[in-house]
Design brief:
Length: 136
């Protein structure tokens, strides 16, 4: 479930997700997120924060693989992001984003958001992204 509200140059959003996974030994997960963006002419500043917790993800294995728990406790990850976007024209923009993932000692969520891209439990990766995109 999510919502977004825009007033003038400010956009804010929030989301909540809850799901159960049965194919990796079974566990439940909850995620909360907040986001915001502020437009100043051709510039845009963006912010995001999220938390993800797994209940019962204790390194169980099921028919389709293993989950991300280390067997010692419930994994929990928090994430913050900050971004800047410059709209060169209607169809072209430059951007830079920073993301930091903060895992507890039982979690190994990576900066890419995919399971298994960070093998060290408790490691808290960060990533910078710089690029451009075109819209048609």
């Amino acid at each position: 479930m999510g919502a977004r509200y825009k007033t003038g140059p400010l956009t804010v959003g929030a989301s909540y997700t809850q799901f159960s996974v049965s194919n990796a030994g079974g566990y439940n997960a909850r995620a909360y997120g907040l986001s915001g963006a502020y437009d100043i002419n051709k510039h845009r500043i963006e912010f995001s924060a999220a938390t993800l917790s797994y209940d019962g993800a204790n390194d169980k294995t099921g028919a389709y693989g293993s989950n991300t728990g280390n067997g010692k406790g419930d994994p929990k990850s928090d994430s913050i992001g900050l971004g800047y976007l410059y709209n060169v024209s209607k169809n072209m923009s430059y951007y830079t984003y920073y993301q930091k993932v903060m895992n507890n000692d039982n979690a190994n969520l990576g900066a890419n958001g995919f399971r298994g891209d960070n093998a060290a439990y408790g490691f808290s990766p960060n990533v910078w992204t710089v690029g451009m995109f075109l819209t048609f």
